[in-house]
Write a structure and sequence with these properties.
The protein is α/β, with parallel strands linked by helices and 145 residues long. It contains 5 helices and 6 strands, in the order E-E-H-E-H-E-H-E-H-H-E. Helix 2 links the parallel strand 3 and strand 4.
Length: 145
């Protein structure tokens, strides 16, 4: 586990976001920030990979993490960024949510074929079915209310 940046913990808990450096991750992050602002919470960002591929486009490069950290600093919210490599991305997100006693987990939804779901599983689906707290699933073109 790599902890990139952390600020003091928020008084009213954390919103954990499963973040990827793409439109799905950006949508999830926007919603997480909006929910955190509304509830006086912090934002905990988890970027994970199983590490079983030579290149995983969903695992952020250092420049992407620097941009993310800058964006989070600009919100003024308490925040933490974790970059995880391990057994399963959904478990990585759920472990951070449990560790921080998350009040909400936010995930971006992407379309996958039935065969793709069968062979690779679905991180969002496993988070939705397993999380101990509410989960907000968003699409890239949805904007926070």
């Amino acid at each position: 586990m790599s902890e990139q940046e952390q600020t003091p913990p928020p008084a009213d808990g954390w919103v954990v976001v499963a973040w990827t450096p793409d439109e799905f991750g950006d949508a999830a992050l926007e919603h997480a920030i909006a929910w955190a602002r509304e509830g006086g919470r912090g934002v905990a960002v988890v970027n994970g990979t199983r590490g079983d591929a030579l290149v995983d486009e969903r695992f952020a490069a250092p420049a992407g993490l620097a941009d993310l950290a800058e964006r989070l600093r600009g919100t003024g919210l308490p925040h933490v960024v974790r970059q995880e490599m391990g057994r399963d991305v959904a478990e990585q997100v759920l472990d951070v949510a449990a560790e921080l006693s998350a009040r909400l987990v936010v995930v971006g939804l992407r379309h996958r074929s039935p065969v793709g779901k069968l062979l690779m599983g679905s991180v969002a689906q496993r988070i939705l079915l397993t999380a101990e707290c509410p989960v907000l699933a968003v699409k890239p073109r949805e904007r926070p209310a």
